């Protein structure tokens, strides 16, 4: 959130970015919390869930159902959304990866929301941008993600 806030500021966009995520959260946890963790005055919510589902091998159909629920709840509250995906690597299994990777474009189309297809695009695989675990971005990686998201978020706020 802090990196997105800073990147939006550099674009001249006046917006307050509030964190509503929980480290280690799955899409199911996000669905359970969206009603109370997204404040009432929120205009736009960046929905970036599913990475932990992927790591835990959650059935992609369940992840999709959870994300659909999040988007439905936001829509019911007239909160616009930007959907942020994560790409499943082929090594996880071709069938699983195919099904998982189809979630985000499908839901973006269904709800008519902007999609940033892969939160780790341009970051994953670059040791200078990743923590030692090879899964999470470091501060430089987070800045790059914030910069990448800022354009789509700024456009969605207009």
Automatic annotation (TrEMBL):
Pfam families: Lipase_GDSL_2 (PF13472). Residues 2-143 form the SGNH hydrolase-type esterase domain. Signal peptide: none annotated. InterPro entries: Ester_Hydrolysis_Enzymes, SGNH_hydro, SGNH_hydro_sf. It comes from the Bacteria. GO terms for molecular function: phosphatidylcholine lysophospholipase activity. This is Arylesterase. It comes from Caulobacter vibrioides.
């Amino acid at each position: 959130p802090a990196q997105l806030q800073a990147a939006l500021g550099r674009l001249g966009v006046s917006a307050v970015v509030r964190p509503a995520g929980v480290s280690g959260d799955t899409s199911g946890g996000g669905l359970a919390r969206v009603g109370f963790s997204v404040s009432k005055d929120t205009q736009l919510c960046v929905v970036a869930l599913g990475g932990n589902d992927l790591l835990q091998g959650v059935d992609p159909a369940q992840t999709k159902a959870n994300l659909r629920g999040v988007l439905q709840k936001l829509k019911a509250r007239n909160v616009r959304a930007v959907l942020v995906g994560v790409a499943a690597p082929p090594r996880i299994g071709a069938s699983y990866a195919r099904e998982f990777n189809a979630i985000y474009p499908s839901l973006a189309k269904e709800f008519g929301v902007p999609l940033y297809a892969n939160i780790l695009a341009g970051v994953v695989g670059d040791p200078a941008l990743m923590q030692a675990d090879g899964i999470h971005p470091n501060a430089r990686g987070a800045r790059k993600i914030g910069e990448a998201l800022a354009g789509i978020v700024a456009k969605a706020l207009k």
